[in-house]
Design brief:
The protein is built from 2 helices and no strands. By secondary structure, it is mainly alpha-helical.
Amino acid sequence: MQVQDLVTLVPWTFIAQICNLFIQIWLVKKFLLKPINEVLEKRRQKADAEIREAEKAKTEAYAIKDQYERNMEGARKRASDMLSDAQKNAAAKGEKIVREAEAEAAQIRAKAANDIAQERKKAINEAKDEIGGIAMEIAGKVIEREINEDDHRKLIDEFIKNVGEAS
């Protein structure tokens, strides 16, 4: 009976298997790993480009946000200034209106005082004339003579003087 060796080493088969292994490694490396590495490199570059773009967009967004905040602050300041100016203008106009109203009221009071003084003089003159007429009638009846103009004036003035002292 013949015994077969379980483990035998045939040198030419071993060398052929080693060569076959190296050829397979070289073929896998050339036709599988190289394209896979190229695809992976392209994906890495694409991911890096997207990351750079995202960082650029983030930087631009922060710049836009800062500009927006500056613009808003400027707008708030302008609005505050406009409101302050409007309040000052309103206060100045209000004071002007009050001054004009006070001046007009003073003019009205002065005119009223002048009108009162004129009416008083007019009433006094009318009263003098009426009293003078009554006094003439009374004096004419009492004296029963006619009085000339100078005597008439003297009597009226004396009568008014006496009436003024009595009142």
